[in-house]
């Protein structure tokens, strides 16, 4: 059995439509009443949006119900599906913990509550029957104040048993007016030994070369090879990896045709820049990681050898994978070891 690593999956966008609908049926009559039936809800939840901003609004739908009490419910079903249907051996879940705290509390009270959220997510992710190595990436947010984002970095540094890195999310077009602030926060994270990734170069409005040196991986990053291929040698020299999420760019209207990604892969392979193929929001897309692989092969965007290189890159750049090899190599070692025969008494 092939085993994969997923480096870019949002906790909010990971809830598949059926699971979310069943939750609403049990706990939110008001939400259910907005739709005629499940199929109507699924169509609304998974349909393409015109812009990234419009797409990101869907996250608020899930964030509002992912609380301290309900997170174990969603995470159990997430990991069950990831193990059974996606063959994941490794999963990094990213989210903004502040947005899972009660809105009626003061800012300082919500900051204090974030620690509990991280602990709940961490403990709920340890499920013996679905043995996946998991870790969290805590997302700073473009629409949150500096004090909250700094507290998120501090929380990541203080909880390395559950957290492997930090990110910035909320729409890359909003970074410009606070660019120095993001550079400062990322450098602060690095000084604390916290690993870094960030939603950057996803859209044409999100190209900030000043932020690139602060990142170990780049969330999306497709506009580098598409619009700024002259930057690729720098990425290769720094050993940075792009977290490419193919279905996202169609759902957000960033690309018109998935085949436009062929340029992304071709230029990155030529320049020696690694790519990890990811899902981003598997629930919003109703798409699992093996489908992303298959889709890229079907459209001749990559070949099987390149797919394997991307799968290897995912483990190579995983922030919390504890082994020097990917699972396939470990299994090959086991299979090539002669069995020990125990004499019959």
UniProtKB/TrEMBL annotation:
Residues 5-320 form the Adenosine deaminase domain. Keywords: Hydrolase, Metal-binding, Zinc. It comes from the Bacteria. Coiled coil: none annotated. One of its GO terms (cellular component) is cytosol. One of its GO terms (biological process) is inosine biosynthetic process. InterPro entries: A_deaminase_dom (IPR001365), Ado/ade_deaminase (IPR006330), Metal_Hydrolase (IPR032466). Its EC number is 3.5.4.4. GO terms for molecular function: adenosine deaminase activity; metal ion binding. Its cofactor is Zn(2+). Signal peptide: none annotated. Belongs to the metallo-dependent hydrolases superfamily. Adenosine and AMP deaminases family. PANTHER family: ADENOSINE DEAMINASE. This is adenosine deaminase. The lineage of its organism: Bacteria, Bacillati, Cyanobacteriota, Cyanophyceae, Nostocales.
């Amino acid at each position: 059995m092939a085993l994969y690593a997923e480096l870019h999956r949002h906790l909010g966008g990971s809830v598949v439509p059926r699971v979310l609908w069943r939750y609403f049926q049990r706990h939110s009559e008001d939400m259910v009443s907005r739709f005629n039936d499940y199929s109507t809800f699924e169509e609304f939840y998974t349909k393409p949006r015109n812009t990234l901003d419009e797409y990101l609004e869907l996250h608020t739908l899930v964030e509002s119900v992912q609380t301290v009490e309900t997170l174990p419910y969603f995470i159990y079903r997430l990991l069950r599906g990831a193990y059974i249907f996606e063959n994941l051996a490794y999963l990094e879940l990213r989210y903004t913990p502040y947005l899972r705290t009660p809105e009626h509390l003061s800012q300082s009270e919500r900051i204090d509550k974030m620690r509990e959220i991280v602990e709940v997510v961490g403990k709920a992710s340890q499920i013996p029957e679905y043995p996946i190595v998991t870790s969290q990436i805590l997302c700073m947010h473009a629409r949150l104040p500096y004090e909250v984002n700094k507290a998120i970095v501090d929380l990541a540094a203080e909880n390395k048993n559950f957290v492997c890195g930090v990110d910035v999310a909320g729409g890359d077009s909003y970074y410009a007016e606070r660019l120095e602030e993001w550079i400062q926060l990322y450098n602060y994270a690095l000084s604390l030994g916290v690993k870094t990734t960030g939603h950057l170069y996803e859209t044409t409005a999100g190209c900030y070369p000043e932020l690139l040196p602060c990142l170990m991986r780049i969330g999306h990053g497709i506009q580098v090879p598409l619009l700024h291929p002259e930057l690729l040698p720098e990425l290769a020299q720094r050993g940075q990896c792009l977290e490419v999420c193919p279905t996202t760019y169609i759902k957000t209207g960033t690309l018109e045709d998935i085949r436009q990604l062929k340029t992304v892969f071709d230029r990155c392979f030529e320049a020696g820049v690694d790519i990890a193929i990811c899902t981003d929001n598997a629930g919003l897309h109703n798409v699992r990681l093996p489908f992303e692989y298959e889709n890229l092969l079907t459209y001749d965007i990559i070949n099987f050898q390149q797919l394997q290189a991307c799968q290897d890159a995912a483990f190579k750049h995983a922030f919390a994978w504890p082994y020097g090899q990917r699972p396939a190599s470990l299994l090959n070692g086991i299979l090539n070891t002669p069995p020990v025969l125990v004499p019959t008494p």
